[in-house]
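Notebook, student rotation project (T.W.).
Task set for the rotation: take a protein with a known small-molecule partner, predict the structure of the complex, and write up what can be learned from the model alone. Partner molecule chosen: adenosine-5'-triphosphate. Sequence and SMILES entered below by T.W., checked by me.
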Amino acid sequence: MFYETVKGSRSWKNAFLGQKRQLKAVDHVSFDVYRNEVFGLLGPNGSGKSTLIRLLSTLLFPDSGRMTVFGYDAVKNQQEIRRLINRVSVEASFFKKLSAMENLRYAARIYSLSQEEGGQKAFYILSRLGINEEKAHTSLENLSRGMQQKVAIARALMTSPTLVLLDEPTTGLDPKSKRDVQEFVEEVMDTHDATIILTTHDMDEAERLCDRIAIIDQGKIVALDTAEGLKKQIGTDSLEDVFFRLTGKSWEDVQADEDCE
Ligand SMILES: Nc1ncnc2c1ncn2[C@@H]1O[C@H](COP(=O)(O)OP(=O)(O)OP(=O)(O)O)[C@@H](O)[C@H]1O
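Predicted structure of the complex:
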């Protein structure tokens, strides 16, 4: 998969000045993601992470440039790409009255799997990922948010190979649920033919889960390397320092922005 000079621009009316302003949400971004890699997009609020995820999901189109996913062009081959990608955002959309098993079986039908294959796959994925029989048959509305997030990730594994787009998978979760989801992501990588692009504000999460990390600021990728490589480039032993040096934002600034949202 690669991107080349992707520009996502949006325009809107400035409510106070009545002037039309244009903002490049994603600007000349270019990178490759390797199969079976966890690729992190780390950036402050409004840096363009979600826009990039929406571009990849074919929910938005770039004004110019090219993106391919498993060889398919993101503008010309939307249908093919949509079968191979799964976007998991903070508010996963589910039938909340239905169980995890029912939601997965439903997803299997959307992916044109036969009823039998869908059932088997749902059962296999849930059990392989440690979601026990009782939880698998409980209405989603009665599961914790962490557990719901796990089911959303499990649902993203119905096709193979798959590109799973995890947009802030642990934002708003308590520390235990956060750790559970992170362990789950590690398990997914050990057990499935999955490639993950993950957005996060959380340096520890990026360092723990990501094989490589792109730091994005004001729509541009300002650095891309392994966590160790980034630290070496900046001459520090903390990813937080790297982030600060490259974006001018500290961890506290990011947290404060979060609280304002
Ligand atoms: N629907 C929209 N209309 C106009 N501008 C938008 C829209 N969505 C996002 N933007 C702007 O595009 C820029 C990038 O936003 P984006 O949501 O991609 O950032 P982000 O890095 O995901 O932020 P966050 O961490 O807060 O989710 C921001 O300046 C944002 O205000």
